[in-house]
Structures are given as structure tokens and as C-alpha cells.
Amino acid sequence: NMNIIFALLSYLNSTLTKLFSEILASPLGGGGLRWDMTPLRNLPVVDITSLSKSQIKKLSQSFDEFRKEVRKYYVHWKEKNAITKEEYKSKVEELRKNLLDKNIADILNLSDRDMNKIYETLEFLRHRRLKRLEKADYMVKGKTSTEELKPIRFSKRKRRKKDEKTLSLYRYMQK
What we know:
Helix 2 (15-24) crosses helix 6 and helix 4 (53-79) packs antiparallel against helix 5. By secondary structure, this protein is an all-alpha fold. The protein has one domain (2-144). Helices cover 63% and strands 2% of the residues. It has 7 helices and 2 strands, in the order ααββααααα. Mean pLDDT is 81; it is low at 144-154 and 166-175. Strands 1-2 form a two-stranded antiparallel ribbon. The protein has helices at residues 2-12, 15-24, 37-41, 53-79, 85-107, 112-141, 170-173; strands at residues 26-27, 33-34.
């Protein structure tokens, strides 16, 4: 059923899921986030099938409106050059808050204060991740020669020589 799929997409595109992404996913060198199977398994997801039909319909309609509006702003940004990338991102975040987050908050019984705390925490975590990226970028740009940019090589483990005798742990395990 498309209503259930859209309702799930509404939750997955919400700020709450973005917060869980910042917490659970691994940061990549370029500033993005990497999802492995372990954190993905730990991602809390609302059981859409346990919601009432009216709640599912409400989430579904809000996602449908969200995707249409995002597409409209995307066309204005990419194809018509009518808005900047920053304006586009700002509009998408505004739509996310007004269309998706309000409905998710209603279903999960989250107050405005709770949602503000979620927004603040997400912004803090995102800012911290991007600051690390800027710091790493600054450190690399400060170097000039390619020799200085070579990766660090760790020393190899020492291998035993063939004639070297090793103790068998097996004899210590028998009693």
C-alpha cells in the first residue's frame, strides 16, 4: 500500500531520523555519513503498521506534499537558477519542519520543547562533524610538498624465523 510506504518515508525523512543518523552513522572524510549494517540495524523506526489509518493517511499526505514541494524548489535551484543552494537547503529544512516533523511529533507525543531540543542537538552534532572536517582540511592544505602528504605507514609485525622454536599452548591447557 502506497500510504504505508509514504508514511514510512515521512518518518525516514524527518529530523528525528537525521538526528539518529548523526549519532549512529560513521563520519566520512568528505563530511558525509556512512551507514554500515550494524548502525542501520540499531536505527529506531516507528512501526507504521501499529498506527491508526488516519495517522498513516496524515503521514502519507504530508510526505507527498513534502516531495512535491522539494521537487519544485529543486527545479528552481538546478534548472532555473532562480535560488541559491543555501536557499534551497533552507527551504527543504523549513518544509521538513512544517510538513514532516509536526506530524511525527504528534504521533510520538513530542512537545515543541522536545522538538526544539532535537533541532539543537542535531545542529550541534552536525556542526561538530563539519568542524572536524574543516580542521582536517586545514591541516592538509597547510602542507606543500607531496612527500609530507604521504600516508603514515605502520611498522609490520615481526615474523618468526623458521628455525625459531615456539611454545605450544596446548601443553598448558592439559591437566
